[in-house]
Amino acid sequence: MAPNDPTPAADNGRTKTTSTKKHSRLAEARAWWNEAWEEDGLLHELWEDVRRAPDAGWHGMANWIKAVAAIAVFSFVVLLFNGAVDVLLNAAHRILTAVPNVQVGDNTSTGVWATIDNPVRSYIAAHSVGLPISAPTVYSLWQVTGLFSLIAGFITRSNGVRLTWSCWGFAGITMVWTTTPDASRTVATAIAVLAWTVGSAFAMRGLNLRPRVLAHVTTGAPQVTVQPQIHIPAQPDGGTPDNVRQLGR
User: Fold this and answer.
1) pTM for the complete prediction?
2) What is the pLDDT of residues 175-184, one digit of tens each?
3) Are 115 and 189 in a shared domain?
4) C-alpha dihedral sign at 94, 95, 96, 99
């Protein structure tokens, strides 16, 4: 005698329906996969593009391969740049903070250079109070700026770098003039100006202050315009010419 509870029959129906749907989806996926790898299929065409890329070169390869390669290279460059920036910032921080041996304000320089360097040290030490960075760090930045503008101006001939060099030199000369005692101020400033001028010969290499004159030379010869024309003589109004012959006769 069959049981009166219809639940087992309903569960069997759901199980069969779910199994049928899974089999149909797998069959569709398998069919799509086979169709994609057939001739003129999507995956087949992509694989052919990849296979032909080494022989076709950059200009002949498919555009999607170029896009993928460009994105990969760009991502790699961004990662390298990010790492390089971190390394450079850490190195710069160590260089700028590891300057306890620079005694700003003390007469540590000797010779002719002391005439320029000691006033700059004293000026920076007197005017760096209250800054978030120390006076030795300011002095190191001052030296790095001058060295960079000197070398970069010699190599690149950039107007911006030359302007930086000029401002750096004027500021240094002002520091020497302000800090040096009155008795020797003029001589010390003159030495600073001469030193900056010698450095400018390298930093401003190729600079020409002469205005460029563009000369436009015109000759007095008249311009002759040639217009070829064809003149057809007028035909007489009456009669037919003797030299006219009809075709086919």
Assistant:
1) 0.47
2) 999 999 988 9
3) yes
4) positive
Q: How far apart are CA 201 and CA 109, in angstroms?
A: 24
Q: Does the residue 67 lie in any domain?
A: yes
Residues 219-229 have pLDDT tens digits of 555 666 666 66
CA distance 19 to 247: 92
Q: Which residues contact 42 (CB under 8 A, 6 or more apart)?
A: 36
Residue 17 lies in a domain: no
How many Cβ atoms from other residues are within 10 Å of residue 22's Cβ?
10
d(CA 131, CA 175): 18
The helix or strand, by DSSP H or E, that contains position 190, with its residue range, turns out to be helix 185-203
63: enclosing H helix or E strand = helix 63-97
Domain that holds residue 169: 103-203
Q: What are 87's two structure tokens?
A: 């390394």
Shared-domain flag, residues 82 and 113: no
Instruction: Report the C-alpha gap between 16 and 154 in whole angstroms.
Output: 84
User: Does residue 70 sit within a domain?
Assistant: yes
